[in-house]
Specification:
By secondary structure, the protein is of the alpha+beta class. It contains five helices and six strands. Helices cover about 40% and strands about 35% of the residues. The radius of gyration is 15 Å and the shape is globular.
């Protein structure tokens, strides 16, 4: 993996934190695949730039912008990288979630082609994200609370 590819992986975490969705449109392959493990409505394969950006927007909306990834380290070689990160978020009811994660990035020509996420505690992640989905269905998002909604 070149330093340029390592910079792309670091840039992905920086862009997510801002958020800078224009960065993602410039650094994701058109047919990118982002695999989220688990058994919640947030889990599964998010294919293509548009689907992935909608997924990121949903994470932000349902957590009122509290969803964060704190990049700890990036290791790489031969077109792939592993990024270690700490995920944090808060649900509209005040429930907080923190978990360590590993991301396996596959890159081609400097573009993110595929990402697979590995969770420290999949059951805990499922419980938190299922709660978020339930609150979302009820019309209660952290963004709605911040704006005076239910």
């Amino acid at each position: 993996m070149s330093k340029q590819d390592t910079d792309v992986v670091r840039g992905a975490f920086e862009a997510f934190g801002k958020p800078d969705f224009q960065w993602f449109t410039e650094h994701l392959a058109e047919d990118t695949l982002w695999h989220v493990p688990g058994h919640s409505s947030f889990s599964g394969d998010h294919r293509g730039q548009e689907a992935l950006l909608q997924f990121f927007l949903r994470l932000s909306r349902t957590t009122g912008g509290t969803y964060k990834q704190d990049l700890q380290e990036v290791f790489g070689g031969r077109g792939h990288a592993v990024a270690l990160s700490v995920e944090t978020a808060q649900a509209p009811d005040g429930t907080r979630f923190t978990e360590r994660q590993a991301f396996m990035f596959y890159l081609e020509a400097g573009l993110i082609k595929e990402v697979r996420i590995f969770l420290e505690d999949e059951a805990a992640a499922d419980a938190f994200f299922n709660k978020l989905a339930h609150l979302e269905k009820a019309g209660l998002t952290a963004a709605g609370v911040a704006e005076g909604g239910r």
